[in-house]
Amino acid sequence: MNDAKGLKKYLAVLGAFALLGLSGCGQEQTAETDSSVQETTEQTSEAVVEETTEAATEAYLDYENQDEWDFESGEMQSPINIETSAAEAMVEDGSLTLDYAEEIIDVVDNGHSIEIEDGGQATIAGRSFELAQFHLHSPSEHTVDGESFPIELHFVHKAQDGRLAVIAVFFKEGTENAAFQAILDDVQANEESDVASGLSLNVAELLPANKSYYHYLGSLTTPPLTENVEWYVMANPVEVSAEQIAAFNEYYEGNNREVQPLGERSVLKYEE
Ligand SMILES: [Zn+2]
């Protein structure tokens, strides 16, 4: 009975020590904790204390206080700046097969973007995702070697297990894009109405013919900024006209989140 009580107390102290260790405290605090450990474990020899406390900082888990466990978050945010010279060649076959529906469910001005509700399938490196919607940001959220683009389109997908994958496409100034024009016309025509428009559109025109991309693990770029989102940023932009960029910017300009630190993450490059 007494032994069990003593052990519990000892573990509690070690738990506190583990928390201090994780918070990255300096030498002084470590010394303080050492002496308090020794005080409360008079029966234990010094050698054992040293051995156990060393383990405590590395692997000790206090299963009695799981709500106090430290966990990392905020280290895998999006968007990022893609440094092309630092991208590693992807080892696996990352080929994309995109089969998006041409019959659009609805075009919605959701208060922070123009969002197109659409269905369809994406097969990414052999795994199946369902298209949920696509929407646009101006200027682009991702940058490439520090350069931003006038518009960035996000195709948002979900797998059966809930995993999210976003395929991003940059729009650059060039010739007019028929599919983008159909979206702009639909937004204009339906500004006052909630009725689904029955729009039909060749979604392939919103994607580059060559589907080489940069891949990394990031987050949603709007709250709740959920992490572990797979990003596939198309290396080749799609052209839209200067008039079309101006027309979109009448609705939204500046709905781009700032680039976030890459940290320890890798950016992979897949060449089609
Ligand atoms: Zn987005």
CATH topology of the largest domain: Carbonic Anhydrase II
End-to-end Cα distance, whole Å, is 68 Å
Question: Mind summarizing the main beta sheet?
Answer: 12 strands, mixed
Order of helices and strands: HHHEEEEEEEEEEHEEEHE
Q: Can you give a write-up of this model?
A:
- Residues 1-47 have low confidence and may be disordered.
- The N and C termini lie far apart (68 Å).
- It is built from 5 helices and 14 strands.
- The protein has 2 domains: 2-68; 81-270, Roll (Carbonic Anhydrase II).
- Helix 1 runs antiparallel to helix 2 (27-40) and helix 1 (2-22) packs across helix 3 (46-59).
- With 272 residues, it is an alpha/beta fold.
- The structure holds zinc ion (ZN).
- Zinc ion binds at residues 135, 137, 154, 221.
- Its EC number is 4.2.1.1.
- Belongs to the alpha-carbonic anhydrase family.
- This is Carbonic anhydrase.
- Reversible hydration of carbon dioxide.
Keywords:
carbonate dehydratase activity; two-stranded parallel ribbon; Carbonic Anhydrase II; 12-stranded mixed sheet; 25% helix; alpha/beta; zinc ion binding; binds zinc ion; EC 4.2.1.1; 272 residues; 5 helices
Layout: helices, strands, pairs:
Layout: H1 2-22, H2 27-40, H3 46-59, E1 81-82, E2 88-89, E3 96-100, E4 106-109, E5 114-117, E6 120-124, E7 127-137, E8 143-144, E9 151-158, E10 164-173, H4 178-189, E11 213-219, E12 227-234, E13 238-240, H5 242-249, E14 268-270
Parallel strand pairs: 1-8, 2-14, 10-12, 10-13
Antiparallel strand pairs: 3-6, 4-5, 5-7, 6-7, 7-9, 9-10, 11-12, 11-14
Helix pairs in contact: 1-2, 1-3
Cofactor: Zn(2+)
Family: Belongs to the alpha-carbonic anhydrase family.
Keywords: Lyase, Metal-binding, Zinc
